[in-house]
Amino acid sequence: MRRSANSADGNGKKVDDTDRVRVELRAAAHTPRKDLLLRFGFGAGVSLLAAVVSALFGSFVGGVFLAFPAILLASLTLVAEEEGLRPARDDARGAALGTLGLWAFAVVATVLLPHHSAWLALGAATAAWIVVSLAAYAITRAAGFGGDEHAPEDR
Question: Residue 79 CB: number of other CB atoms within 10 A?
């Protein structure tokens, strides 16, 4: 995914649309091998840590480590390196907001799965994830975060 910093509107006038997110599948084919290895290394390292913690303290504690966003560390490093600190900060903020949504998903699924069908419970949990994530995003934007960094790019 890539953020478009500036684009033209229908009249050819430049418009700041940093909130616009696009998926560019072709860009994935051009990802440097070093970046892929770094992401794989972080993911494998965190998974290994989770396995060791599971062996030492049990599967419940180890499962918490599996929930750790291993790829996030590598991705933020690469984004900061290639695009600057502002996009990396935005990605970290988005990950935190998405995590709030995942907490909502886990709570709803935990409450509903024992008493309802999996389809209903997981559908409701997914809806909770979407609502909480979007609400958290709207609240942070209303508080002035996300559109507040208009200084020259930090590198």
Answer: 19
DSSP annotation of 16: E
Read off the amino acid at residue 85: L
Instruction: Give tens-digit pLDDT for 62-113.
Output: 776 666 666 777 778 888 888 888 888 888 888 888 888 888 988 999 899 9
Show the beta-strand stretches assigned E in the chain: 2-3, 6-8, 14-16, 21-22
Contacts for 127-132 with beta carbons within 8 Å, 24 or more apart?
Answer: 128/101, 128/104, 129/101, 129/102, 129/104, 129/105, 130/101, 131/101, 131/104, 132/100, 132/101, 132/103, 132/104
